[in-house]
């Protein structure tokens, strides 16, 4: 009969806890480009904020790409800044406001996508919103500062007691004189909530502490966006 040490038992328990990690992917309203590699938060930390890279409206008869990339800010209960991660990044536009759910975590997302436009200019993904564990209503969200073409696709949520811990993006490369779209889809990994204590031990986190109605902290002058209508703004193309 084999004997297991306390360390071996703890390791096996940890493997059992983390085996249920899942991926959540935006519905492929558009599907141009290649998937980049997954970029992950350090073990035991999770996404607490996000930032969007957006090309502003370029005017009539000029190619628009709208949303180009998504950046995640990772943290844990002891450190709010363990890492900043992003997958493949489109080349156009600039990074906007940083939106933070600290001390909560991101547990779902939704993309605003413009469907195929035929002979007109395609932009694909325009904006993103994220669901936070510390908002008073689970249907509340924080919306980014992207553009408003298209409509919101189906929301994607982590399981209970899981938070976003990794990101992978599908980005169309520069098409030269042809129509560019850049970011098309996003895939997130949801990880079970584990807490790495300062002494290095790992325990199952108490998600009840993340369900309290705590304020959302928004950086760089950004504002929270709670549920709105899905009407598309009438902007010239």
From TrEMBL:
Keywords: Signal. One of its GO terms (cellular component) is extracellular space. Residues 1-20 form the signal peptide. This is Vitelline membrane outer layer protein 1. It comes from Orchesella cincta.
């Amino acid at each position: 009969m084999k004997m297991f040490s306390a360390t071996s038992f703890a390791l096996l328990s940890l493997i059992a806890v983390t085996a249920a990690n899942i991926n959540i992917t935006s519905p492929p309203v558009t599907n141009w480009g290649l998937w980049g590699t997954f970029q992950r938060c350090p073990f035991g930390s999770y996404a607490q904020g996000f930032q969007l890279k957006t090309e502003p409206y370029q005017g009539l008869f000029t190619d628009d790409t709208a949303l180009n990339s998504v950046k995640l800010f990772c943290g844990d209960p002891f450190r709010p800044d363990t890492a900043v991660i992003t997958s493949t990044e489109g080349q156009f536009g600039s990074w906007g406001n940083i939106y933070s759910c600290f001390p909560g975590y991101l547990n779902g997302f939704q993309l605003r996508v413009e469907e195929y436009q035929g002979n007109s200019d395609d932009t694909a993904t325009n904006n993103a919103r994220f669901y936070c564990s510390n908002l008073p209503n689970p249907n509340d969200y924080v919306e980014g500062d992207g553009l408003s073409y298209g409509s919101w696709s189906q929301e994607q949520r982590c399981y209970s007691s899981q938070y976003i811990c990794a990101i992978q993006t599908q980005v169309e490369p520069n098409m030269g004189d042809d129509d560019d779209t850049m970011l098309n889809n996003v895939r997130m990994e949801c990880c079970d909530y584990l807490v790495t204590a300062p002494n290095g031990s790992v325990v199952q986190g108490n998600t009840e502490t993340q369900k309290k109605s705590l304020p959302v902290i928004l950086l760089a002058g950004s504002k929270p966006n709670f549920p709105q209508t899905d009407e598309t703004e009438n902007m010239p193309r």
